[in-house]
Amino acid sequence: MAGRSGDLRYALRQLWRARMFTAITIVTLALGVGANTAIFSVIQAVLLQPAGVKDPASVASFHARYVQLNLPSIGVSAPDFQDAVSLSPIVESGAIVQQTSFNATFQGRTQHLRAGLVTWQWFHVYGAEPIVGRVFRPEEDQKGANREVILSYALWQEMFGGQRDAVGQSVLLDDQSYRVVGVMRSDFDWPRNEQLWIPLGLAPTDYAADNRFNESYDSVVRLRPGASVAQLNAALDRKRQEEIRREGTGSFAQSAGWSMFAQPWTQDAAGDLRKPLFALFAVAGMILLIACANISGLMLARASSRTRELAIRTALGASVSQLTKQFVVETVLLAGIATGIAILAGPFLGRLLLLAIPHDLAAGFVVEGNWKLMLAAAGFGLATSLFAGLAPVLQVARSYKDLRLAEYGKGSTAAPARQRFRSVLVVGEVALAFLLVAGTGMFLSSLRQLQHVDTGFTSEGVLAGSVTLNASNYRGQPVKVQNFLDNVMSRLSQQPGVVAAGAVSSLPFGKNGHPSASFQIENQPLGPGDPGPHSDRVTATPGYRAAMEIPLLKGRWFTEEDRADHPRVAVIDDVLAQAYWPGQNPIGQHVRNGSNSPWKEIVGVVGHVRKDSLEVDENKGLIYESMAQNASDGAAIVVRTKVAPDALRGTLAEAVKAADSTEAVYDVHPLSSLVSESLAARRLLVLLLTLFGGLALLLAGIGIYGLLSFTAAQRTTEIGIRMALGAQRWQVITLVLRQSFVLIGAGIGVGLGLTFVAQRILTHSFAAMHGGLADSLVLAGVSLALAATLASVIPASRSAAVDPMIALRNE
């Protein structure tokens, strides 16, 4: 024990004497370990342990897909869900949700509330417990009996001030009374941003086989202990085969490539954050490698400068194990201090990182410090200490036999092999830094490309807001719905600065996306194995196209004459026209949604509109139908204006209130902000890559500075002789800078190769990564050249200031 405490005291004294080395080492290690700990804390919050969910690894999301219809992952139908929960040896419980909304009168005003209609086991699947009251019971999840509600924590605070006696009270939703039976904890937020939950109350007929392909629900299941997603998928595939056999050869399920599948729920929960987080974790790993190489080089240099001390200790009888153990103790001590800093700072940095993530992506996630995070930080610190401390330990072990006091005088220099190894470490740092800076440039270039992608409409100058009409007043009354919308459009059109106003059932880049459905084309019978045409489908008012400035290519748009008592009409986009009427004029052709639906005449063709992404365009085509002929209880209102869109927020709210005082407009935003938010994940990635790239440049600069400083100190005698023989200061500076530029040149060469490989990988994972490579390489090269020059100035100036007489006398 005394020996161990002696080693520790000696290590502390040595590190205290070399305070500059100790400070640089701890800061460098803390930056590397802290960056990885921060990223891991967010990964844990998003991918491993989302807040409010018990054992998320046992929860799987459940989907349907149609390979031939280009639908890789959609919701499920009630029969699909029934198939999944019937797999009792694998599935412990399951639930489905249908997102909706209600209007509630609260504190004298109409408030829009987001809701999830769920089957009774929804909270059981997530292992979520209410803070007050209880969850739903099976008898409450019945058609006509579903008049109970569970409130979110935030809504409970807002409506009832957090009073526990809220349970048992009633709330009016769409003029219907619902009894509060529970309040969920503040950390449960699934689906995201829901304010309340109500039993779905499906009827037995909803599970009938003829509803198989009506996918309108999201589903989750909890696996039994020991069961896996792979086992669930194998069982679902057997269900698929049974369904195809039941329907027969050539059925829609077979020809459309229908199947059901499950995946870890955390993949769905993470959404657009998955790829950026994995990319950032890889980047943080590179930062840690740079830090390791940096510290390894510094420790090698320090070990070389301590050869006289080691020789004396050897002469006094110190064994090789004692010498190497001393370096191990110092390395572990440095790594331990840095890891302690990272453990303390990691969760804080993770929370800052989560704050930098746009709210729509980060909602429902909470970064917390816990033992897993501490273990991860300790693992990063241990890996760092092993990597950084290995080189000096091996150096001491190899040179032990040569440690003789007479051989190490004041003017000793480092062995060429050691010097080359330190140079290799610096070259590696420069290469990784080049890769990170070039990668940042490529992502920045891709962001610029995506910002100029044609959406098919003009988002600037448009204000968008949504309304969900009170079901008790409007459901099943299309004329009343149309009168309401006509009233709102008329009021908006009369306002100063308003150019056009319209409404659509699903707004591009909105939160709900476009629903899709199969349709039929008149006089185009299906061939064997043909699943039939499929497209997205929305309804719109006459003013919608003008408000969005969607180009009209052929025919006409909807008019006020296209009402319920007139012939049904449709407008298609050019993608659908080219897919099903190539080289023909589709005007006058007829389509319908199903065998029981009326035929609609195609009266116009418009330009293609992107649905929800600037990165990926599913390009399925779109059918527009007249909203007056297909009224629904919800719509997005768009207003094109000559003034700033935000200036019309109050005007839009007043127009809706004037049309019906019991209705409220919500999610009011400039349309351009919705388009911009679709790039939130890419923008976040660019921001954080810029920060990490700057950190990589800093660490690479420290590495170059450390190597040149040590080399210059070792070459003091040589420089003194050169200056005594007439060398000028600029020649000495050039000598030092030449070494720096050789290292930076070699590092850039290696970095170029790594960058070309990285671009090929990134092109397969991220959109718009094919351009901007040349500019990114120039950016990385110039950045590293500047960093290297700045890092070289002080060692070069110090070398040029050497007094040759003093240098030779010290020798």
From TrEMBL:
Residues 22-238, 426-608 form the MacB-like periplasmic core domain. The keyword Transmembrane applies. Pfam families: FtsX, MacB_PCD. It is a multi-pass membrane protein. Its main location: membrane. It is found in: Cell membrane. The chain crosses the membrane at residues 21-47, 277-301, 332-353, 373-394, 424-444, 684-711, 732-757, 777-796. Residues 282-399, 691-800 form the ABC3 transporter permease C-terminal domain. Residues 514-535 are annotated as: Disordered. The keyword Chaperone does not apply. Keywords: Cell membrane, Membrane, Transmembrane, Transmembrane helix. Belongs to the ABC-4 integral membrane protein family. This is ABC transporter permease. It comes from Acidicapsa dinghuensis. The lineage of its organism: Bacteria, Pseudomonadati, Acidobacteriota, Terriglobia, Terriglobales.
